[in-house]
Amino acid sequence: MRKPIVTIAAMLIAVSACAPGSNNPKPTQKPPSAVQTDVAKAGPVTLTVWDQEVLGGQNEQMQKLNAAFHAKYPNVTIKRVSRSFSDLEKTLRLALSGDNPPDVVEANQGYGIMAALVKAGALVPLDPYDKVYGFRKRFPAGVSQLNSVTGDGKTIGSGNLYGVSMTGEAVGIYYNTDKLAKLGIQPPTSFGQFEQDLALAKSKGETPIYFANLEKFPAIHELGVLLGQTADKGALRNLVFGQGGAWTDPPVVQAVQKLADWAKNGYLPRTANAGKYNDSPSAFAKGDGVFLIGGPWFAADLQKKMGDKVRFMLPPPPQAGQAQPSTLGGPGLPLAITAKSKHPDVAAAYLNFMTSPQAMDVVVQTGGLPSAKPASATPSTPVGRDVFQAYRTASDKDLLVPYLDYATTTFLDTLGGALQEVIAGRKTPQQGMAVAQKDYSGFLAKK
Amino acid sequence: MSARQYSLPGREKSGRSAPGRKERARPPGEPRRIGYLYVLPAFVVYALFLLWPLVHGAYLSLFHWDGLTLGTWAGLGNYTHAFADPSLRGSFWHAFVLLFFYAVLPCCIAFVLVSVMSRSRPRGMTFFRTVLFLPQVVAMVAVAVAWQWIYSDHGPVNGTLRFFGLGGLTRGWLGDFGWALPSVGLIGTWVEIGLAMVLFLAGVQKIPVELYEAARIDGAGAVREFFAVTLPGLRRELAVALTLTTVAALRNFDLIYLTTSGGPGDATKVPAYEVYNRAFNTGEVGLACAIGITIAIIVFVLTAGITRVVEGRP
């Protein structure tokens, strides 16, 4: 009976010798002087671009800009492949490990996609192109920071630039102007005032904040707004990027405590953990909730349903007149160049074109929130202008803190799950954040 | 090895093939080796799309691999991790809880329905049969969206409770830490009843009416009749129903993904969801494969056990 054991052992040795995957060499950076900026000289080129801009205005935005690029450089044909966000992110790994990957892809920030692709040597560092086109100068610092990864792919938030984003996001507070009028209040100018308004709304039988948290991640937005009140933005950035601090630090626990208090006081719907996030705009438009915390992604839908009755503001400072607190936000999905692209210089010119002030005008005209300053366009609706102005303010004053779930690959699940337990009153803020910290320290130790 | 050892088992049973005779002189219907050729096309497809992925999955489960860079040898590390990690261990426990809701409960309910139907043929039987089988036909996505509404704050479940003055019991069922798992489980029960019932109904029609008549003449009531006649007559159907529903319970992914995404917290996490989550969201392909292979082994053991116990095979 010796033989099977020997066979198995031999098989195991054979198997362990050929591991899956491959060790691609990291792409080298060429000197900026070697960058060919004259696209017309490149001859006939087909640029394959993968994007996820499939929804209404975003789709129109990509179509218009791609057509404009082709009109400017007739020798370049853009072959566009657009898929929904989740489809794109799930297939990206497979596509980029193949032999014939697209030239330009939208690769989501964070350890899950962008850093993993950098680690595998699948993306080109944009630093030489930045020196030629000045990408970093276009965007607020927080935006470029999130599109940066160290060359080894181990740390996000610093190192080389790997992507440029066409759109931006800043989380803030939507409010129903009808409800405010009925309660006899103005939009709050301080966080203290905001909490008084919540108490007033509760006492008048209203839902103070509409909040749907079935998917776990939404609570991270509420927490981000609360962290703006208790924690320093530098400390928060360091925490998310794994450069110091802990999720059990007092300012963080204080913010989580506030969230627990909101749930306990009935400022959030009792069934928050069972509500579907994507139903938020329709529930809020129907009058469920005086306030709604969220990003620009709600604006178009709310505008359609509520017209001028919905407005948006950044979270107010603790006391009226104080400096604006930080909030969550950053760049939309970034365009990145793949290492196997045969025309990286043309791709870089495309990236430059897609983030130019003129392109930002198109983003505004198609209802998007541009990541950089547009040449002249301004949004046409009140809530659109609010969101636009809020992002400009957040950019100019450098208020954006990255989404907290960038911290680890599993943080959306662990932090989001812990916050669900805190909201349900099953865990104290300390216990909840201890769970998050355990995931965080484990991830940093493995890195 | 001699050619004889390769022959199919049916051969030895046939006493007519006298020793020493030539191969050609076999009786009609005797299996021949050419039979393998007939199954070849199906086998190639099966091997290519099922066996090979299974083997490749088992191979990947032995590595730490993020799907992109060179993997490192992990041995059985991914398997031990799958059981050491409390959240993953919890997901296996949830799968066993769902086993009750997906397999045991539907079979029990289907038995009640079938014994009622077999004793008295109610009017519009075809209609009821169709209605009860309908959940099997409806796409899981539609099922999930419909039940999300049923369980929602303003849905019919809470509405009914409020109507009877039980407003204190209302809750967001899918977002409640204690109730989310049973709530998802009951959706599974609703879906699987139809399958079990159709199988049992077909089986009941096979049972000779004389047996029922004899039982009734002997004075057996409905319960006695069920245990003495119906249940023994439905052994095989029960085994099939349990096997199918058990597999459905253990590989349950779509319903969880669509209704709760494993939440609240970790309350409804199941292994099949974790396979997807680890492979595509967190980039732990090796661990995902290890969980997948573990599910396959558990399914294999359970279904083998079910056939033995229920069908009474050795």
TrEMBL record, chain A:
| Source organism of this protein record | Actinoallomurus oryzae
Q: Does the keyword Signal apply?
A: yes
**Listed name of the protein:** Extracellular solute-binding protein
For whether the record's keyword set contains Ribonucleoprotein, the answer is no
Q: Which PANTHER family match?
A: ARABINOSE-BINDING PROTEIN-RELATED, DIACETYLCHITOBIOSE BINDING PROTEIN DASA
For this UniProt record, the keywords arranged alphabetically read as follows: Signal
At the top level, the lineage of the source is: Bacteria
Q: What is the lineage of its organism?
A: Bacteria, Bacillati, Actinomycetota, Actinomycetes, Streptosporangiales
Q: Which residues form the signal peptide?
A: 1-19
Automatic annotation (TrEMBL), chain B:
Q: Which InterPro entries match?
A: ABC_transporter_permease, MetI-like, MetI-like_sf
Does the keyword field hold S-adenosyl-L-methionine?
A: no
Annotated membrane-spanning segments are 34-55, 92-114, 126-150, 179-202, 285-306
Topological category with respect to the lipid bilayer: Multi-pass membrane protein
Q: Where is the composition biased (Basic and acidic residues)?
A: 10-28
**Keyword DNA-binding part of the UniProt annotation:** no
Which spans of this chain does the record mark as coiled coil?
none
Where in the cell is the protein located? Cell membrane
Q: Which residues form the ABC transmembrane type-1 domain?
A: 92-306
Keywords noted in UniProt: Cell membrane, Membrane, Transmembrane, Transmembrane helix, Transport
Q: Name the segments for region: Disordered.
A: 1-28
Q: Tell me the superkingdom of the source.
A: Bacteria
Please state which protein family the record places this protein in.
Belongs to the binding-protein-dependent transport system permease family.
What is the protein named? Sugar ABC transporter permease
Query: Could you read off the lineage of the organism from its UniProt record?
Result: Bacteria, Bacillati, Actinomycetota, Actinomycetes, Streptosporangiales
